[in-house]
Write a structure and sequence with these properties.
The protein is mainly α. The protein is built from 15 helices and no strands.
């Protein structure tokens, strides 16, 4: 395997691990809440802490991405993941777990920019297709995560063991990255390009706004769907965690579909249609939570609709600013990271102060606004 191909494979593995980390956290929140003797919405702050670290990393990495090889950021990300997951496994109290989650979030940000930069640079003639396939790996990881959690919960294996083995896996990937010779995948910025001129472009704010709503909704549903199914549908833990896996399976299918449709439907139009599908499916889930067949179908469709949104927004940005993919990605993905800070927390607050149904109603509102904002993105707009 040549060096460039090896680096590409490692980038895919990093995104797979990012998905696993996002997928298993939600099912473990009730156990973390019981173990640490904290309220469930306080345990949900782990999602927000991860997103906060993610946001901070995006700002830092985006500012220097044009001067460093993406491989370096992937290596740093895996080291941060190993340290953060080990901290989650060993932390005896919530504040220390929040710190560990923020460290994991720093790794998330490094992966987001570096992995996208690698794929964009190698696939500039088919951006939307290639990015959808890249983010399929995130969906696969997020699908596997709840299965791991469900297996552990069914066998009374505590989350510290799961997070500890996750840290070991990340350390192994870091070692593989360290042993891989450096391959530069960044294009030099054009004269006059920079972060501040990019921030003056209205389209980036629109893309960031869509990702704020999308990532917030995706992370919120992924984090709280397990508890919603346990409460609203009275499902056993292992069955509820399977429901979360169905959600991420839908996300995988959505990204495969987005890749296949990329040459037939423009990224903007596909995003609008996909957002509408997720909104309709959320309505179905809210109205029929106790019909297990209907709920499973609606959960799959929510993920199916969410699937193409993130890669399509990155593809639109990369096509507008091909020489500043790192900086562009840091700006719009930072919008998504902020969404993951606030939306899951608000959904958890809705569960704690109202009902589980209120959390999904909030996700529905977010998804509807996302569809409406996607309509404001115009072809040729800068």
């Amino acid at each position: 395997m040549n060096i460039a191909r090896r680096l590409t494979v490692l980038a895919y593995v990093c995104l797979l691990l990012l998905g696993i980390q996002c997928g298993w956290m939600g099912p473990f929140l009730p156990e973390i809440s019981r173990t640490l003797h904290v309220a469930i919405d306080d345990a949900g702050l782990l999602i927000s802490a991860t997103a906060t670290g993610h946001f901070a990393a995006l700002l830092a990495v985006g500012a220097i991405s044009h001067r460093r090889a993406a491989q370096h950021f992937l290596l740093v990300a895996m080291i941060l993941y190993a340290v953060g997951l080990l901290g989650l496994a060993l932390a005896p109290a919530l504040p220390l777990m929040l710190l560990a989650a923020a460290i994991v979030g720093l790794g998330n940000g490094a992966i987001d920019i570096a992995a996208n930069a690698v794929i964009v640079d190698l696939n500039r003639e088919r951006l939307a297709e290639a990015l959808n396939y890249l983010h399929v790996l995130f969906g696969i990881g997020a699908f596997i995560g709840p299965i791991i959690a469900g297996f552990a919960l069914a066998r009374a294996i505590g989350y510290p063991w799961v997070f500890g083995f996750g840290a070991l896996g990340c350390a192994m990937v870091a070692a593989a990255l360290l042993a891989t010779p450096t391959v530069s995948v960044q294009l030099p910025a054009q004269t006059g390009d920079g972060l501040m001129p990019l921030l003056a472009r209205p389209i980036l704010w629109l893309l960031a706004g869509v990702l704020f709503l999308y990532v917030g909704g995706e992370a919120g549903v992924g984090a709280w769907l397990y508890l919603y199914l346990r409460s609203a549908s009275d499902l056993a833990p292992a069955v509820a965690s399977t429901g979360v896996s169905i959600y991420w399976l839908g996300l995988i299918a959505g990204r495969f579909s987005g890749a296949r449709l990329a040459n037939r439907i423009a990224a903007r139009e596909l995003t609008i249609l996909a957002s509408a599908l997720s909104a309709i499916a959320l309505i179905g889930l809210i109205l029929a939570p106790r019909s297990h067949v209907v709920a499973a179908a609606m959960i799959f469709l929510i993920g199916l609709g969410y699937g193409p949104v993130f890669p399509n927004m990155v593809a639109i940005g990369a096509s507008r600013f091909p020489h500043q993919v790192g900086r562009m990605s840091s700006i719009i993905i930072a919008g998504g990271a902020l969404g993951a800070v606030f939306v899951p927390w608000l959904m958890g607050y809705a569960i704690a102060t109202a009902t589980p149904r209120a959390s999904m109603e909030f996700a529905l509102a977010v998804t509807v606004v996302m569809a409406l904002l996607s309509m404001t993105i115009r072809v040729g707009e800068t």
